[in-house]
Amino acid sequence: MLANPARKYTAFRPLPLPERQWPQRQLRHAPQWLSTDLRDGNQALPRPMDSATKLRYFHMLLACGFRQIEVAFPAASQTDFDFVRTLIRDGHVPDDVTLQVITQSRPDLIARTFESLQGAPRAIVHLYNAIAPAWREQVFGMGRDGVRQLAERGATQIRDMAQAQPDTAWQFQYSPETFSAAEPEFALEVCDAVSAIWQPTPDARMIINLPATVEMSTPNTYADQIEWMHTRLTRRDSLILSVHPHNDRGCAVAAAELALLAGAERVEGCLFGHGERTGNVDLLTLALNLYSQGIAPGLDFSDIDAVRQHVEDSIGLPVHPRHPYAGDLVYTAFSGSHQDAIRKGMALRQPDAPWNVPYLPLDPADVGRNYEAVIRVNSQSGKGGISWLLEQVHGLHLPRGLQQAFSHQVQHYTDRSGQEADAATLWQLFRQHYLHGQGRWQYRSHQQQQHGTQTMLQLVLERDGQAHVCSGSGESPLAAMLQALAVPLEITEHAGHPLGQGGSTGSICYVQLTHHDGRQAYGVAEDSDTQRAALKAVLAGVNMLAN
Ligand SMILES: CC(=O)SCCNC(=O)CCNC(=O)[C@H](O)C(C)(C)COP(=O)(O)OP(=O)(O)OC[C@H]1O[C@@H](n2cnc3c(N)ncnc32)[C@H](O)[C@@H]1OP(=O)(O)O
Ligand SMILES: CC(C)C(=O)C(=O)O
Known about the structure:
Blueprint: E1 32-35, H1 37-43, H2 51-64, E2 68-72, H3 78-89, E3 98-104, H4 107-116, E4 122-130, H5 133-140, H6 144-163, E5 169-177, H7 184-198, E6 206-212, H8 219-230, E7 239-245, H9 252-261, E8 266-269, H10 283-291, H11 304-315, H12 336-348, H13 383-394, H14 400-417, H15 423-434, E9 441-451, E10 454-463, E11 466-474, H16 477-485, E12 489-498, E13 507-515, E14 520-527, H17 530-546
Parallel strand pairs: 1-8, 2-3, 3-4, 4-5, 5-6, 6-7, 7-8
Antiparallel strand pairs: 9-10, 10-11, 12-13, 13-14
Helix pairs in contact: 2-11, 4-6, 6-7, 8-9, 12-13, 13-14, 16-17
The structure holds acetyl coenzyme *A and 3-methyl-2-oxobutanoic acid.
The site of acetyl coenzyme *A (ACO) has 17 residues, from helix 1, strand 4 and helix 5.
């Protein structure tokens, strides 16, 4: 890299727009969506999709709720042409869905495009040509007039060919490709020239689509460019203003959102941001950004993993595990403090109250994710996450002190193994540490009598493998047991609950014992009988302190 990059790269010059309105606005409704997965997305694949894959993808897009789908560049290849024919001929396009196809401003390509659309009830014909200086000079070898005339010639041919196919309800779209790199007044001149030819009306609007073909600037600058056009375009009430951001600087989603504030009404992009180079704007992220602000996006991602799987299988590229809303890890907390906050938030959550769970901008359940994956345990995790998993999967409600004590065991395991501890491993570790049933004292049977406030307990135990009978009394069966055992211990905590998850039945009991020398341990036991579980838990605690 250069010590002085300014020798090679020039900063993008922002457009002065002191009267800008967009920073004061808020998004309140969803835009029109155009999926260009099958065109801009497909043209950027190492191996473009075959027709069968494209057809399945088309139906997946319909199921997500897309109503405008750019399906091909029909003049580019026989495959693209045939795909459009198949969609039309075999009746794949529902009545409320419009196909869009793209063409360069070249007479043979436009003619072929119209041929592909024969018999379509509705269609959007999308004309584009690059207008920015580098393209004018290097690609077309033309001045501004030449480039404007290129657009005008294409628009005229499209108008005339559409008139010759009156059975189709046509809508026209013009993209001044490389808009964001072009001089705004020239972009305006070309767009106005095209709309002068197409003569849209408020009832039959044409689409002006302003692409950031290459993302050149910060999103606020793109928003200024959009607002500048929005407030100056001739026939504005007869236009649908659309944006088509790419993601070269990693800001396409922000650019699209600010562009919507700046007057755009429609967004073109792809699922998961596929497309040329760094991709098109990710429509799924945009839609779920709206959703998580309480705005119905008009797209349905209730089963986000199915959509992701479909896209991955179709295009042969993976979705990143940290991809917003859809990545494998995006609802998952490994770190202790995040887990603690999520667990508390989930516990306090009221079903009808606004979503307010810390660290989770969206309820994973809304996109078909379960809560199990929300918390995963590794060496960065704390007691909160560990107990959440034991609670969710095995129905254990560990007392706080036991959570702390057990988390040390888990930490030891994860540090040593370098591995994640899933719910099954945690349960195994818990059983191994607390429910192994070994130790000096073993329970055999007991009998209990009540004399006023005093409980009399007769115990048949095993001590070091030998039968041991003893008795004691106290204000509770557990106190009576400690007396019977004649150990210098106190019960400092006692909790329990029925079991019913993870294949267990009966009750589980947790008892914290404190030795007179200050040492503490938890005894845990499960049994079909609550009383027996408590007595066994005391013995387990005694065994722990004996170790
Ligand atoms: C930003 C975007 O995503 S735009 C969409 C881009 N998508 C694609 O290009 C995928 C499909 N494209 C193709 O398959 C091919 O490019 C075809 C079939 C359309 C055309 O192929 P060819 O004519 O053989 O070659 P090629 O694409 O290199 O043509 C470039 C020519 O088109 C001209 N051209 C490029 N864009 C346009 C345009 N929008 N309008 C008119 N002419 C254009 C170039 O100036 C160049 O002209 P030249 O040959 O006189 O120098
Ligand atoms: C043709 C236009 C819309 C395009 O794909 C782009 O600029 O990226």
